[in-house]
Design a protein that fits this description.
By secondary structure, the chain is α+β, with helices and mostly antiparallel strands. The chain folds into two domains: 63 residues, Arc Repressor Mutant, subunit A, CATH 1.10.10; 129 residues, no CATH class. Helices cover 43% and strands 18% of the residues. The protein is built from eight helices and nine strands. The strands form three sheets. The chain has a four-stranded mixed beta sheet with strand order 6-7-9-8. A three-stranded antiparallel beta sheet has the order 1-3-2, with helices on one face. The chain has a two-stranded antiparallel ribbon with strand order 4-5. Strand 4 and strand 5 form a beta hairpin. Helix 4 crosses helix 5 and helix 7 runs antiparallel to helix 8.
Length: 203
């Protein structure tokens, strides 16, 4: 007897890392899109997979205390960008929140992209991918790109000593090479600020 589509999907994922994000099309070689869709629904009901949003699934990693460990918005967006072979950059309030510079949790999360503009519902949030010119998507560092987006959102006249200290701590998780590269793509006042923080932190 041939394996069911359900079992083929399970066989495909069971040796892979838990916490991995999958798309419906990742299983296109197994069966037709309709059969895959039905099997994915069955596997969600059996708690083998978690449906994050339409067409996007999680092979869940769990914690005894917290249960399913859901991926961050940024992880989901990076997975979508990888699938679409597109580049993305975070913007505004989301960058501030990610860096701990704001307690405001953005309902609408906006990313710039050179891929397809779209909206995706993830939990109680709407993720928007907004089309932009390729020159705006040349940054290399995950942290440094967040920092630059956050600084743009705050504005030159709102950079307190506390903000600089918080940014300095965040940039310790980024390579100096990425910071220097990305700073060159930022407005001049941000470039000078980042190089000053680099010097002070001896990164």
């Amino acid at each position: 007897m041939s394996q069911s589509v359900d079992n083929k999907i399970i066989e495909h994922i069971k040796y892979r890392t838990k916490g991995k994000i999958y798309f419906s099309e990742d299983f296109a070689q197994i069966a037709s899109s309709e059969s895959v869709r039905k099997s994915l629904s069955v596997l969600v009901k059996k708690d083998i997979l978690v449906r994050l949003t339409q067409g996007i699934y999680l092979y869940p990693k769990t914690d005894i205390e917290f249960g399913v460990l859901y991926p961050s918005v940024n992880d989901v967006c990076k997975a979508i960008a990888k699938r679409d072979k597109a580049r993305i950059e975070p913007t505004g309030v989301f960058a501030l929140h990610s860096l701990g510079l704001s307690n405001q949790i953005p309902v609408n999360v906006v990313y710039l992209t050179d891929g397809i503009p779209r909206k995706i519902k993830y939990g109680n949030r709407i993720i928007k991918f907004k089309k932009t010119a390729p020159k705006n998507l040349s940054m290399k560092g995950n942290i440094s790109s967040l920092v630059i987006a956050a600084l743009k959102q705050l504005g030159k006249n709102n950079i307190t000593q506390e903000v600089q200290q918080q940014i300095g701590l965040a940039l310790k998780k980024e390579t100096p090479e990425n910071i220097k590269h990305d700073a060159q793509l930022a407005p001049e006042w941000i470039l000078k600020l980042l190089f000053s923080i680099l010097k002070q932190s001896e990164l």
